[in-house]
Hints:
The protein is α/β, with parallel strands linked by helices.
Amino acid sequence: xxxxxxxxxxxxxxxxxxxxxxxxxxxxxxxxxxxxxxxxxxxxxxxxxxxxxxxxxxxxxxxxxxxxxxxxxxxxxxxxxxxxxxxxxxxxxxxxxxxxxxxxxxxxxxxxxxxxxxxxxxxxxxxxxxxxxxxxxxxxxxxxxxxxxxxxxxxxxxxxxxxxxxxxxxxxxxxxxxxxxxxxxxxxxxxxxxxxxxxxxxxxxxxxxxxxxxxxxxxxxxxxxxxxxxxxxxxxxxxxxxxxxxxxxxxxxxxxxxxxxxxxxxxxxxxxxxxxxxxxxxxxxxxxxxxxxxxxxxxxxxxxxxxxxxxxxxxxxxxxxxxxxxxxxxxxxxxxxxxxxxxxxxxxxxxxxxxxxxxxxxxxxxxxxxxxxxxxxxxxxxxxxxxxxxxxxxxxxxxxxxxxxxxxxxxxxxxxxxxxxxx
Length: 423
């Protein structure tokens, strides 16, 4: 009978012995600019395919949009056992103003124990760990009683239409469970997300000479301000959280109190609709009564309320104002979603975090959203776990601790054994 713990320890030791290769892999990926927009993944995709090719791993290329390539590679036996997907994205947010960086965002430099550069935390460190763990299982010729697929997507940071949802819609991937190497806390993978509802509100007015306002015309900007005041009341809705997810909410609050202690004051965001007035654009000149004002709004939805219910609430509020408006949904849209903590894919990750680190691990709720929702829409249980320095994500001077990259790769390779060799 196979001793799983012995095999896991062998693989963990191999990661430790070859950690320099892992760190070099991550550094090399960061050196390849893959900002989205524009979203050209050609160079990063070719580099990954070449790396996997060293170990005779075949890679399928799927171009979902111009110069956006999804890569799929699989090992194991597809005719028996379960199918596990390891997923990551190659795209990163733009580096922005280069003068505000303390280092070259595409240097991939390792300094004082930190990996530096755009994508270090989100998510080229996690992606490198997945690629390395996947290749390690192949080069060691581990006989898996099931299938492990590596799905590398080019489009997540702008909404992800040409990444995970494209692969699922076109039936290119499907599995029994999935791990996305998105940034997370070291001991707390993300097993649930709030929903998303992004929309643009456009309010229409009647133009006129500014010297006659408010007696003449109809000011679209002041009407939009009235509308914003009503929309912000979404936060005040008392939402009944379903019983089945209340334990997840409570353990996530514990996490915010005890782990990310600076987040303690934000605990209530898990049970309320957040409302962010992101952009506002209107008018042409100070002396012209504006005939149009556009406002883009990001709402995140807790469990217990749907996008349809939110839309109805907004419509009812705005109808009391006697304004001329239209609402156009766009971007991220989903209801709150989660994977049960007892699901085998969640247990495989959390239990191996503890196996590797000897530290308590448990899944928590994310107050934002991600590609995980797409897998759940196709009934694929999923969670997120990856190396990160959370304060640096999407900001200047992005970085991640080298030790976190190595630790996560150890968890990835051990979790495959527990998941696929499950009795």
